[in-house]
Amino acid sequence: MSAAAASAGETLGWPQRIGQGLVAFAKGVIGAASLTLVYQLVHWSGIVDSRVLPSIVAVFAEMWRMTIDRDFLWAIVETVWPAISGLLGACLLGIPAGLVLGLSPLAERLSRGLVDILRSLPGTALIPVFMITIGTGDLMKVLLVLFVGVWPILFNTMYGIAAVDKTAIESALSCRVTGPALWRRVMLPSAAPFIATGIRYALPIAIVIVIADEIVVGSVEGIGGYLLQQQSNIVWRAESIYAVLLAAGVVGFALNLAMDAVCDRYVGWDLRRSEQT
After folding, report:
1. How many CB atoms lie within 10 A of CB 270?
2. From CA 18, how far away is CA 264, in angstroms rounded?
3. Angle, to 10 degrees, between the axis of helix 56-66 and the axis of helix 238-267?
4. Rg (CA), the chain
5. Residue ranges of E strands in the chain
6. Which of 118, 166, 211, 249 lies at a 20 to 30 A Cα distance from 36?
7. pTM for the whole thing?
């Protein structure tokens, strides 16, 4: 590609990306609006008891009330904090392990069986085990997220290293780029989009597993604890339960947007996405 063509591509890059973002946003709004309309039509039809399926207006009104509820806002912090902490731990463990397995076919073959067994264990089924061995505090949430989130990060890192262009490595070696410089200039930049994909894939899993832990444990903390409190009210208010669940989805969506922005900022040069595991 000529320098002029490359320059033109860079000039058109941001407008194209903004246009694609607006189109994706519009599609998302249309999809959400359609689902909301279907929900409300079912409510109006009377097929389902309104005590079980409240009006979407009542659900949104409850969500609005929750935005100024200090207890709920603090519950979000209590859920997100251990999720992010566990995800950071998963990165510190999964990325180096993925680098080793990606570079060494022998290490990958020797560890494949054990890794496949461990990553097949469902996180929710491990909650009682973690309760007995670790307790029910924040440490248990962090370690549970670490265990569940490490696998997509590890495998995407491994695939990213294995997918590094061999020609790029040979070209760097021919220019006497070796050791740490080879990693900094060739290996890690090539694998970074795969690693970012693994982190993006693990992020919603981290939020879900923390909320599941809070519900199973019967905690009074976090989004899960707040949901249990709404369910245990003397007066049954289904709109409160739906609002908490919808708000949890909004929290996850906001975290995904933040992660997408970070990925676009630091690994936006490569739009490849590794296979999610």
Report:
1. 13
2. 12
3. 70
4. 23
5. none
6. 211
7. 0.79
Pull the structure tokens for residue 122. 């469902």
Burial 100-138 (b: 16+ CB within 10 A, else e): bbbeeeeebeeeeeebeeeeeeebeebbeebeeeeebeb
The two counts, helices (H) then strands (E), for the chain are 11, 0
Average pLDDT by stretches of 10, the chain with 277 residues: 41 62 72 83 82 85 88 92 94 90 82 85 86 86 93 90 72 68 72 88 92 88 87 72 88 87 72 45
Report whether 230 contacts 239 (CB < 8 A): no
Q: How far apart are CA 150 and CA 199, in angstroms?
A: 9
**pLDDT tens, residue by residue, 164-173:** 767 766 677 6
Tokens of 266: 């630091």
Give the 3-state secondary structure of residue 148.
helix
Cα–Cα distance, 54 to 59 (Å, whole number)? 7
pLDDT single digits (tens) 85-120: 999 999 999 998 988 888 777 888 888 888 888 888
Lookup: tokens for 84: 């992010």
Here the tokens at position 86 are: 């566990």
Q: How far apart are CA 144 and CA 87, in angstroms?
A: 10
